[in-house]
Amino acid sequence: MTDPQDVPAAAGGTNLPFLYRQYPREQLLDALRRMHLIRRFEEAAEESYMRGLIHGTMHLSIGQEASAVGICLPLTRDDQITSTHRGHGHCIAKGAEVKRMFAEFFGKTTGYCGGRGGSMHIADVSTGNLGANGIVGGGIPIAVGAALTAKRLRTGKVAVSFFGDGANNEGAFHEALNMASVWKLPVVFVCENNGYGMSTSTERSTAVPNIADRAAGYAMPGVIVDGNDLSAVAEASHDAVERARRGEGPSLIECKTYRHRGHSKSDRNRYRTKDEIEDWMANRDPIARYEAQLITFGIASEAELKDVRQTVEVEIAAGIDFAKASPIPAAIDLADYVYTEQQ
Predict the structure, then answer these.
(1) Which of 60, 128, 298, 337 has its CA 20 to 30 A from that of 84?
(2) Are 90 and 65 in contact (CB under 8 A)?
(3) pLDDT computed for residue 27 by the predictor
(4) Region class of 250: left (phi > 0), else alpha (psi between -120 and 50), else beta
(5) First vs last C-alpha separation in the chain
């Protein structure tokens, strides 16, 4: 944690937002690096898709970087997450290497799942990432199971479940929240509400004004935050994670955010206006807001921000080269990982 005396006087000292009081400068800059890494990874993946290097489809989270990074900031490597079909940012925020993610996208053996999972099914157990999930709400009960294990074995781990606004109307959402609350499990439910479940707005699909309002029905805190404000997200995550570690049970965090791209690569965006998209991109971009704060509070200079961006560009280029040079799976290995080996 940063000593308030180490904060530049011009920045306001103890009047700084939570993020700048809680984390040292090195972590603040690393958070920026991860946000840029998420965005450039997805932009490069999109470019590779357009060039025919990636097949199928993908669901991009460009515009939601603060949610992924902010939620993961207070987590340790041993803490666990479950992700969604729009989960690239969660993977990177939890510590995944972009070169192995690119390899997975390219269907190569060096990918996290040996090229068998692709965009929607990346998992990295070594960093606590229990996997992305193409089933809406599919990761929520898995996180509850991980939290139950943590409680029974007294490991001290916390599980975090990321899901979109569309999942809050799934039965698994309600069953999982109820069970987690009854057993006071160390789990944090994170709804990334980008306003649309595919092409249907939350106003048309959900009876309550805010998804966090549903927390009251399960006797847990329901917190609404600006999902494009890294400090606000990190503070909500910090409080929920600490509550879970103390054995006080689960929390529900709703991050109000927005995806710049469509639902998937086949989305023609006919349900959103051009003005709406441009307003979010121009005025509420999470990376631009965070960079402006870093300069305003005297944490970093323009030159240092530029250096972060250049470092990310190098890592992205190296990751694509790694994926291109990696071997493709051999036909003889087709049945690998399908059956368990007899012990």
Answers:
(1) 337
(2) no
(3) 98
(4) beta
(5) 48
